[in-house]
Amino acid sequence: MSKKCAGFPLCAVAIALLGLAPSLRAGSIFLTGHDPDFHASVGGNGLGAQHINQAAINFVTDPTFNPFTIADHKFLFVESSISPPSGHIDGIAGIIASGYVQNVDFVKADASTLNAQLNLLGTTYDAIVVASDFGGILTQAELNILNARAADIKTFLNAGGGLYAMAEGNSGAGLTPGGGWFGYLPFISTGAQLNESEIGNTVTPFGNSLGLTVNDINGNASHNVFTGTTGGLSVVDRDSSSNILSLAGRGTVTDAGVAPLPSAAWTGIVLLAGLFACRRLRNAMS
Q: What was the pLDDT predicted at 39?
């Protein structure tokens, strides 16, 4: 058998596998009962809250999986423009404290502009970041719009976009009394109101892989936990009673949950195999 014939089948297979690589791009989701939009600038552990924001935003905008993450793309930060009630702040303060610059790294949208800005997902924006409703000032008006646009958000995620959402549960001043918390996801991810001091929280190995430590998730307060099924997402951290505080994951978003992708390591193997095979073919034909 000639070198050309020996190399061609391998290259053909590798090219076919590489042709599947774009399909590996799918939604990146991070949900948390923490309110680091508040505690990144107010509270006992500002640095830890900043690290939560950074880990979550890095996860949902990772260009390995998110094809919309290019130099001029921003994330869309969703929050009201009301005057913050007692116990709340404008969550932009925490996003800025975490190192992100408004109108450079992100654009804010409230209920008056949100529908128009959601039309720009995948063109102007590579991810959606949703403020907390206690700590931050997400209100029912913004939440209702997000929920009404759930199908569009699902489409955006399945094209590779990202979503990071902070605590929702109508705590504090009661800014989301109509419920529908995290309802903009097409699968059920139940957030149950639970206000508690962050003492004795633990990070899972998956959470560690995102760069989070036990020091990051203790020392402030959290406002909801996730009950029921995880919807295919992985647990990031738990409270002292083993309730789920944060979930994250990547995959194809369906009405039943997130179907996980093959591991990044497997994707890397496929890509390396393709490059190796094509190099063999080039050498054989020279």
A: 98
Distance of CA 254 to the CA centre of its chain: 16
Cβ burial, residue 159 (10 Å; 0-12/13-18/19+):
middle
pTM of the model: 0.85
What are phi and psi for residue 257, nearest 5 degrees? Answer: 145, -165
pLDDT at residue 132, rounded to an integer: 98
Q: Which residues pair with 108 in a beta bridge?
A: 77
Cβ–Cβ under 8 Å, residues 251 and 232: yes
CA-based radius of gyration for the chain: 21
For the residues of the chain, what is the DSSP string, one character each?
--HHHHHHHHHHHHHHHHHHGGGG--EEEEEESB-HHHHTTSSS-HHHHHHHHHHHHHHHT-TTT-TT--TT-EEEEE---SPPPTT---THHHHHHTT--BTTTEEEE-TTTHHHHHTTBTTTEEEEEE--SSSS---HHHHHHHHHTHHHHHHHHHTT-EEEE---SS-TTTS-TT--TTTTSSS--EEEEEEEE--S-EE-HHHHHTT--TTTTSSSEEEEEEES--TTPEEEEE-TT--EEEEEEEEEEETTEEEEPPPHHHHHHHHHHHHHHHHHHHHHH-
What average pLDDT values come out for the chain (286 residues) when binned by 10 residues?
A: 37 42 73 98 96 98 93 93 97 98 97 98 97 98 98 96 97 96 84 94 98 98 92 96 96 90 50 47 49
If one counts every other C-beta atom within 10 angstroms of the C-beta of residue 19, the result is 10
Amino acid at 80: S
Q: How many CB atoms lie within 10 A of CB 24?
A: 19
Beta-carbon-side half-sphere exposure of residue 218 (alpha carbons within 13 Å): 11
